């Protein structure tokens, strides 16, 4: 249900617990004098202002779409409403892979004809046109500028093995009362553009920034945006590459493209940035899209006074000559860049203050956004653990930590997975806030779902973090917290008690 705003002098509390409470509502009134000294005292300071929030959400991977569309129409509708509607947790961010990811049923790209540098044979895959963005092509509806479907029609598409479907993105926007911002991320380039000649495995783009391989790869982004725009879908942002450094370490089966910070900067300056500027699309660029252990160093690249091309002949990934310069200090790069995407997988290695806050201090005009997170990765037994409260705690801990270190939003990985944690064609199974049992035609909301809801439901876009001081006794307790001021003037306090 929509959150009920409190009357002046009152508060409304929503609580979830391991014992079984799920966003359970209660209310009370503030008092001027306490009958006894409190064990915990938090003091709100709304004059102390920090970053504004973009939002919270998840990712519409192929695997998520397959699981959602495997449900009967009424159950599918209930799942989507749980995420996007006013009666649900009201996601406002949605990440869409640009082509295949490991959470697909097969490796593919949109341009598999070798040496098609003009991308005359570019076309979206069935995973896009039948599951995510089908619908009549033509004029855009008024909501298209919000980053989602503009048309509200109920045209259905038949997906193999499923009942007729209304495309997922169309339904998500239709039921959302808040603006829904989409951003796209590529995992791999077509095989003929990569140094290893395969969409899978370690490899860079062939050549160097500014050459025909890099120009074609930039054009690939534009064609993706073009094709979705024909279906009345617009994107708020694109990331320059999913996990560009992890690509050097990924197993051979994973779809990847490797970039160094210098290579990514030069690709943006010479190819992707100008291509977007010439296009009709308003999408801007998020750099990194990888672990915070690379921050703030990712924003400091190797150059010799002016751009060197950033790439290497033959795609070996070697660095350019030496002299330190900040990537976002480069005006040519910075004007195309909206912010910095971060993944959570190695957060334990580097404190948030040393990475996130340090990066914000260097580049306060560029937003920090968490673009991927999930539980159940690298587990020895089961990726999916139904009802695991500890995994929900880990989500809240992460979100509270990063919000208190200048991050503007947090994006979960797959919206829905099956009981195994897939499908995933490289068997990289993980957990999800929603687990689908196709055989029983049901879905399960995991504790992670409710933990996310304590943020996405109550902290709309435009909310601003404010000061929150804890009493001396509170410093010894196992509580984490953040305070924000919503655009409607209501204060929100989120507290985690582990």
Automatic annotation (TrEMBL):
EC top class, in one word?
A: hydrolase
Give the UniProt keywords, A-Z.
Answer: Glycosidase, Hydrolase, Lipid metabolism, Signal, Sphingolipid metabolism
Intracellular or extracellular location(s): Lysosome membrane
What is the recorded membrane topology of this protein? Peripheral membrane protein
Hey, which pathway is this one from?
Answer: Steroid metabolism; cholesterol metabolism
Q: Which residues form the Glycosyl hydrolase family 30 TIM-barrel domain?
A: 53-134, 165-303, 323-459
Gene3D superfamilies in alphabetical order = Glycosidases
Q: Does the keyword Secreted apply?
A: no
Recorded catalytic activity of this chain's protein: a beta-D-xylosyl-(1<->1')-N-acylsphing-4-enine + cholesterol = cholesteryl 3-beta-D-xyloside + an N-acylsphing-4-enine; beta-D-glucosyl-N-octanoylsphing-4E-enine + cholesterol = N-octanoylsphing-4-enine + cholesteryl 3-beta-D-glucoside; beta-D-glucosyl-(1<->1')-N-(15Z-tetracosenoyl)-sphing-4-enine + cholesterol = N-(15Z-tetracosenoyl)-sphing-4-enine + cholesteryl 3-beta-D-glucoside; beta-D-glucosyl-(1<->1)-N-octadecanoylsphing-4-enine + cholesterol = cholesteryl 3-beta-D-glucoside + N-octadecanoylsphing-4-enine
InterPro entries, alphabetized: GH, GH30_C, Glyco_hydro_30, Glyco_hydro_30_TIM-barrel
Q: What is its main location?
A: membrane
Record domain Glycosyl hydrolase family 30 beta sandwich: where: 462-498
Q: Name one Pfam family in it.
A: Glyco_hydro_30C
Q: What is its EC number?
A: 3.2.1.45
Biological process (GO) annotations held by this record are: cholesterol metabolic process; glucosylceramide catabolic process
Q: Which domain of life is it from?
A: Eukaryota
Q: Which GO terms describe its molecular function?
A: galactosylceramidase activity; glucosylceramidase activity
Q: Which GO terms describe its cellular component?
A: lysosomal membrane
Looking up PANTHER family in the UniProt record yields: GLUCOSYLCERAMIDASE, LYSOSOMAL ACID GLUCOSYLCERAMIDASE
Q: Which family does it belong to?
A: Belongs to the glycosyl hydrolase 30 family.
Q: State the name under which the record lists this protein.
A: Glucosylceramidase
């Amino acid at each position: 249900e929509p959150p009920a705003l409190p009357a002046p002098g009152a508060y409304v509390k929503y609580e979830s617990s391991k014992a079984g409470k799920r966003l359970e509502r209660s209310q009370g009134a503030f008092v001027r004098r306490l009958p006894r000294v409190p064990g915990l005292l938090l003091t709100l300071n709304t004059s102390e202002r920090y970053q504004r929030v973009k939002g919270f959400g998840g990712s519409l991977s192929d695997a998520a779409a397959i699981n959602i569309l495997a449900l009967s129409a009424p159950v599918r509708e209930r799942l989507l409403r749980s995420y996007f509607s006013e009666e649900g947790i009201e996601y406002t961010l949605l990440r869409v892979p640009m082509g295949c990811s490991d959470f697909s049923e097969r490796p593919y790209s949109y341009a598999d004809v070798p040496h098609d540098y003009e991308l005359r044979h570019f076309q979206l895959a069935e995973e896009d046109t039948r599951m995510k963005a089908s619908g009549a092509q033509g004029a855009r509806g008024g909501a298209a500028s919000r980053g989602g479907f503009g048309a509200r029609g109920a045209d259905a598409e038949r997906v193999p093995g499923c009942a007729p479907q209304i495309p997922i993105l169309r339904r998500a926007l239709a039921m959302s009362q808040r603006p829904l911002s989409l951003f796209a991320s590529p995992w791999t380039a077509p095989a003929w553009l990569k140094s290893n000649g395969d969409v899978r495995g370690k490899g860079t783009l062939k050549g160097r920034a500014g050459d025909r391989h890099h120009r074609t790869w930039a054009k690939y982004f534009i064609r993706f945006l073009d094709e979705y725009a024909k279906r009345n879908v617009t994107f708020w942002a694109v990331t320059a590459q999913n996990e560009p450094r992890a690509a050097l370490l990924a197993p051979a089966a994973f779809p990847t493209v490797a970039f160094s910070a210098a290579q990514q900067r030069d690709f943006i300056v010479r190819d992707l940035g100008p291509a977007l500027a010439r296009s009709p699309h308003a999408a801007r660029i998020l750099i990194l899209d990888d672990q915070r252990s690379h921050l703030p160093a990712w924003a400091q690249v190797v150059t010799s006074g002016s751009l060197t091309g950033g790439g290497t002949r033959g795609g070996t990934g070697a660095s350019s000559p030496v002299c330190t310069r900040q990537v976002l200090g480069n005006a040519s790069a910075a004007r195309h860049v909206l912010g910095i995407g971060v993944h959570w997988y190695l957060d334990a290695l580097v404190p948030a203050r040393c990475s996130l806050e340090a990066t914000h201090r260097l580049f306060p005009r560029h937003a920090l956004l968490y673009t991927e997170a999930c539980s159940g990765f690298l587990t020895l037994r089961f990726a999916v653990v139904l009802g695991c409260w500890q995994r929900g705690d880990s989500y809240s801990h992460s979100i509270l930590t990063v919000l208190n270190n200048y991050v503007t939003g947090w994006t979960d990985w797959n919206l829905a997975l099956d009981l195994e944690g897939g499908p995933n064609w490289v068997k990289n199974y993980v957990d999800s806030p929603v687990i689908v049992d196709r055989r029983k035609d049901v879905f399960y909301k995991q504790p992670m779902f409710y933990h996310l809801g304590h943020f996405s439901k109550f902290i709309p876009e435009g909310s601003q973090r404010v000061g929150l001081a804890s009493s001396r006794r509170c410093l010894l307790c196992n509580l984490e917290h953040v305070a924000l001021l919503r655009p409607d003037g209501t204060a929100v306090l989120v507290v985690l008690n582990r």
